[in-house]
Each structure stands twice: as C-alpha cells, then as structure tokens.
Design brief:
Elements (H helix, E strand, L loop, with lengths): L7 E5 L2 H19 L4 H4 L8 E7 L4 E8 L2 H7 L5 E9 L8 H15 L4 E7 L3 H6 L3 E9 L2 E9 L4
Parallel strand pairs: 4-5
Antiparallel strand pairs: 1-2, 2-3, 3-4, 5-7, 6-7
Keywords: Acyltransferase, Transferase
Enzyme class: transferase
GO molecular function, one term: acyltransferase activity
Length: 161
Amino acid sequence: MTAAPPPYTTRRAVGEGDLAACFQVRKDVFVGEQDVPEEIEYDAYDATAVHVLAIAADGTALGTGRLLYGAAAAGKTGGDPAVGSLGRLAVTRRARGLGVGAALVRAIEDEAAGLGLTAVDLHAQTHALGFYERLGYVVYGPEFPDAGIPHRAMRRELHQD
C-alpha cells in the first residue's frame, strides 16, 4: 500500500508565473488581511531574493516566503555575510494549519544551506514568535515596529551535513 501524496509541495519559485503566484499570496495576506500598504509590501529586494512557493496538488499557490543573502541581507542581519534573511512568509487562509508555513521555512533554510550560509535571521511578528521558536529560532534584541506591526528579530543556526 502506498502513502497518499502530500496535499502540497514546496519548491524554489522559477519564472514569471511562480513569481506572480508568490506576489499574489503576499498581496492576499499582508495587504488584504493585515492592511500593510501595498507600496511597502514589494521592494527592490524581490528582484534578487530566492523565493519559495507551496503549491497544492491542483496547482493553487498556498504560501510563499523569500530569502535575502549577501549584500541584500546585510542590513537585516547585522552585516554577517554568512547569515541570510528569511522574510515575507505568508500562507493563504485556506492552507493554515496544514504545516505549510513550517514547510516553507524549511525550504528557505535548505536554499540558505545550498548557498553556503550558516544561519538564517528573520523579523517575526510578535504573535508568531511561538511558531518560529518551535522551528528552532531564538529571539534576540528588542521589539520594534514594522509596517505598524510589532516584531522581534530571531535567528537559527544551520547545521551543515
């Protein structure tokens, strides 16, 4: 007896169609649900970031996230070139509770490890601290506002196999 296929898969976004799906998820979640102004949701970092996508079996985008690295990440990570910056993690309302967010975080960490990075930083909305702590992230520094929402910086060391 074979196991049923997973209800979704995660992968690196490739091509304009995937990027459009990533941006639509972000628009639905951040702009639509959280009232983040659209003009600050998308930025110059989108052009060079590694984007990941969670896709349902029917091809529907369920979630996204991005990884900044190198010079693009320096302002968010304290300038350490070996640390990437996870951001813009968003899961559609219908996909919440399915493990999509955790799968996207792991996919971003895999991309970071593939780039030779030794850690991943992120700026978590304070209501999501427990989610990231369960995935091995540790809070550091004071709370700060981003788009009017309280955040904390977090980091997870990546263990190279």
